[in-house]
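Input for the complex:
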Amino acid sequence: MIGKILLSGVLISFLSMFVRKRYNYFRWILFSIYLLLTLYFLFLWRNSFYYNESYNFLSLYGLNFSLNFKITPLGWLFSFFTIFLTFLISIFSIQKNIGEDSEKLISFFWFYLIVSNIGIFFADDFLTLFIFWELMTFSSFFVISPGWIKSFRAVNYYFVLSTLGAFFMLLGIGFLYGGTKSFSIESGYTYLFTLFSINPLLSVFITITFILGFFTKSALIPFHIWPAQAHAEAPDDFSAFLSGIMIKYGLFGNLLFLVPLFLLIKNYPSTQIITNGIPLFSHILSWVGAITSVIATFLAIESNDMKKLAAWSTVANIGYATTSIFILSSYGIAGGIFQIITHAIFKTAIFLALAAVKYRTHEREMHKLGGLAYKMPVTFLTFLLGIIAAAGIPPMNGYASKWFIYQALLSGHFPFLTIAIFLSSTGAFMYLFRALHSIFLGQLPEKFDDVKEVPFLMQIPMYILMALMLLTGVFPGIILKPINSVLISFNLQPVKVTYNTMFSTLSSVDSLKVFLTFSGSFAFAFILYLIGKPRKHVEPLDNYTAGQDPKEFGLTRELYHFALKFYEPFEHMFDSYRTNTKEFYDSFERKVNEFGNFIKESYSKNIRYSSYIFIFALVLVILYGWLVW
Amino acid sequence: MNYNLPVLLIAIPILFSFLSLILGSFNKILSKIILISVIIFNIISGICIYNSVLKNGNILTVIGNYLPPFGINLISTYTSISFLILLYIVFLVASLIFVSKNDDRADKISSVLLLYLASSTGILLTGDIFNLFVFIEIFSISNIILISIKDKKLSIKGSLKYLIITSIGASLYLFGIGFLYGILGTLNLSEISLNFDNISYFSKVFIFLFFLGSIMAELEVFPFNFWISDSYAGSKNYVNILLSGLSSIVALYIFIRLFLTVFGYPTFISFSYSLPFNVKTLFLTIFGLSVIVNELAALSSKNVKRILGFSSASSLSLILLSLSTGLKNGVMAAMLIAISVIISKPLLFLSSHQIMKGKGEKNLNSFIDGFRRNPLFSILFIIGVFTLVGFPLTPSFWGKFLLFISATEKISYTTLILVIVVFSITIELFYYFRLMHKLFIKDENIKVEKTKNNFVYIFSGILLASIIIFFSVKPYFTQNIVEKTTEDIFDKSGYIKSCLKSGEIDDR
Amino acid sequence: MRESDFNVGKFFAFLFVLILFLFMLSPLFEEGDGAKIDKNLSDIKNRVSYFHSLKSVKEIERILSDNNDFSKYREITDSAKTVIFGESKDLENGTANLVTSIVLDYRGFDTLGELIVLFISILGLTIILSTLSFAKFEEPSFLQITGVKFVTPFMILVGIYIFLHGHLSPGGGFPAGAIIATATLFSLIGCKFNYRVSNLKFIESNAGFFVILLATLGLYFTGSFFGNYLPTGIVGKLYSSSLILIIYSLVGLKVGAELSVGIKTLYNGEKDDDR
Amino acid sequence: MMIDNRTLYIYSFIIFLIGIYGAITNRNLIKILVSLSIIETALNIFLVSTGYINGSNPPILHSGMKLISPNSINISDPLPHALVLTAIVIGVGTTAIGIGLTIKLYNHYKTLNVNRMGDKDEL
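Predicted:
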């Protein structure tokens, strides 16, 4: 059945190519229907774990080439929420593509992304995983930059890092194949575990190849620069997919391969240095996650582009999840997965809200916006709830997942990691508040006077996402119960949870009570708002320039927008500590290009040179053959 | 048995090359007609020979009525004849493109092309080491002429480089022949391969290394290939096709014959060498370095022709790398990659030429908006890229997969192959995707006009693409061919037997 | 800077050459098992050319075809015929010059390749230089004119003699062609004898055509390419080994015409002649 | 005079290496081509000397000469001569093409110095 779903995806994608350009939205309707059907089947499989499918296509050259799928609890969980969220995005996209002269190829390649999504999450061996992984990379390459010169540079970063990651992953798979003569994931990590005591250097190398492969995809340090480029330049609705879903593939890979490996090592500690109950390797990776989240937070604070800001926020959230997962306790892993899912939900909501803003205003720079809350109330509310969730404020789902992460870190006695996470979590307030205020609150520029709320079809996914954020925040058990079955599949203790109460070793929290408290205080504040003095509308120029006409000084209204250079003093504080990673990559690229140019130029140097090199090489070869035996 | 059709494959083009010059002085069209009809004759008789090789095994053709090792002989093995058919297809495409263009030197160039055809056929069929040398010389001289047809500084410099390097290489080759003849008293490949092991220590090293050095220039391997950059960038389109497709086949076949059949020792699953030093490590170093360097050069190039040229050099090195693993899987991988490279490289040259048509500079940016200008050839270009890079189900996918697997066989020097292969795939992916991406970029400022494609280009592009697709959708057919070829390459005693009637080599 | 660079290059070139020299000497001075290149070659019995020079390849083939093992030819040494100048007749080929017998009979295919190399390089020369035309030489002096007029016919005659006697005496088609081409060069320089390239090309291609045709006719008469189907006659007579005689004559004509074309092309380009 | 083949081989090697040295250090294109010719000459000497037998006759029958098998064969090996003939002609062809290309390059650059023939604008 999995194979049929994948095949039908491919077929429908080709079918959608025949839709004429005028009826572009019809392609998106097809896409939504496909997603809905897939979702239905996924829902049917919610209890049929460890069902596997194998497609033996060809047996060539003494090899059985087959695609193997298995429904694991982890894969099912990931695929279910990714498909669900993609379905919501696709509804948004239908309306977005109605009038617009949009690209044929976006929806075409998005089909392949969904196909590869299902393939990755249900892959039972490395070969299947890798094939769908590559399919995902290639098709996303064409979606991020569907024929715009501007996004070319951004997609270059993305593509180089992705192919580099895939290169390392393929290398690791090759080494494992050499050892086990099979592509099975399970035998891969058990072999690698035994190799740790036989040949530590090689095994560390293989592990590092996998880490690089997965970490490039999930944009952890030092690969953290591509989301800010790619998410910002991609089509708006696709940014939601990129940020909410695609960035999770790397984390899924970690959970699929590295976590079982480290759990094995943790249970047989004779093979590895253990610190604080977890292997050193894993500990380092947690720190990588924490550092990523801190750095990404600072970068988010600096950025003025709203999509870039949200992208950096994504990187920070991935950092929390990574930190938590590599704690390797059952609370840590549960918190990590929970964080992944909640982040997917609220980041989709935020990006859809931003896409709605851009749909109406065609602006991305925050200081050109402002005061849209009255014009676009639903979008505003979505964004508001989204950032509340992102900041981890109680009634929303972000609170629940962050609570889990803190509990896991504290109960595992990692005070410094906790501080790092707390730091970046606090930083999240700074940039999220700024985004909210500068886009939706404050003064409305004159040119946006006739901006309307987005059409109803676009509002539907926003309503659903709002409800989802609230629901999973109040009843975290909805998500934590499936996570428990994932933990069982890892041979870990399931976390203790009811629908509305979360327990940890240190404390417990009843989120329903928290919700009621918060809504009560909100109602109180709202009443105060209603009975207070009516507000007075002041033009910004009145406020700042005391009524003078600023045009005489070449000043515009935008320069007085308070979102411009909002955190400038804060940025100055960190100026001396800044290391520009982008600069590093650029210089690396320059070095590679210089080397290539050196080779290329030496190729077309003069004629004598070529024969000189010929003889030189001949002499080298002769010296090898003659003297080295 | 004496089966004389193979010699006609060489004799007829030579005969008609003279005739084309005679008749071409009356009318240039006659020589074009002669060119095309000779190729069609060669294809048809090639298929006849293929069938009889399938039926009867290797075919020995005796020349001058003197049996080997006394006279010169041609041996048509499965490998050579299947390579030959591939070669003829590429040649047909190139000559069709040549014919479609107006050139006032058409009679002379078609004569050169016919001799090129004859010489490459001769290289693939001959069973005599000196005869091989003569054909290689004809081949390289015609290469030089074809490169320098375009009257540009770049092409003439390239061909002069090629000339100097190949003539030094030829001198090395002749020294090798002198030594072989002085020691063994024979020039027949089968007899040399039968007795090569009896040669003394240093002489063996000498002969091996000199032969290696001499054919390195043809093989487009890194420290010896300084001619390719200028030659590819500065020559005409059909010459590019010939250089990338045909030269690769020929070089590959020379390598197989000399270094696997004559100097190598096949056992059931691998080749070994009775030389004092580790030949495989030497090959690995040279070819691996060549793959990496050429890929990097292609990555940093801006001229599309140069990119494709470097890329074809690197894929040839990759083929040689997988051949020189000497494993059965490696040889099969080499054959698979060879099939896809030989067909897809001409396709890439052809379609990139059509996409860039009308643009003054041939750099990367001339690909912008290519899809709207020329949808057909953009699609053909994409097919070519997918085939080259190793998209699933194309032959090169299977080839790279097999190479990948054979490289992991044991953790030793072969694992280095793994790194090289994966590295090359990554870089190749990157620069080809960059090109493909440019095809879809829309330049809003420029109004797009659809390019008119010549019928010949459409025909040959679709021919090549359909061959690729045929090989991809019929994997069992491809497997059959590749396995037979590999068996044939490993069957050294069969080669000797077909020539000398009995050849016992001690299978180690 | 460039000068010092050059010296370093020279030093390394010298080093390379030294290493190459030592390497090339190594097989000559080695001791140990295995066949080596002879210091004093005295025995050519284990070479294929032994049977070539005794014109007894067919005899050996007949003997070997009984046990069907052609790699054992070295063990048979006493079955070869005796060849006597002026007496032996109807041998495999009737040339007195053994080199010619190898060049045109036993390894005739190589010679075909050789012809093509020359042909294609001159053709290439005309293709490469077709867009050029360069300055003429100086006016010939009186001495040149007279000398050339006197010597050229003799040179052509000598050339013709040499290719006709290629199977009897040293020389043959290639040297003869070179001599004829020298004669045309003389006439070009000396008395500005402006022959047309296209005529020479006609001769050249026709000669090549007939060489291949004669060789291909062997397929019909003997069942093998380059097979000799004409009577071979008595060793040492002019009309012996008839096919070799004809082919060598054609080769002489062809090479002479070819080299003349090359000279003319290099002399004043090819372009102005085609008009 | 008795010369053994090894001496001939060494002579030919020396000439060959002189040619190689010339080909890789010279800056003048014509000189490079001359060096290539020197290499070819060396090769011809080497090939001929592989067939040379001390005190033997040239392989041409003349009046009164007999070739009797098996032991009294007293001519040098004719096959290397044939090879040399082919090699000479191939050398001529290569040189002719080389000269043609040199003329062409001279026409483009107005110099024969290869160091002045590299221009980066064509990259």
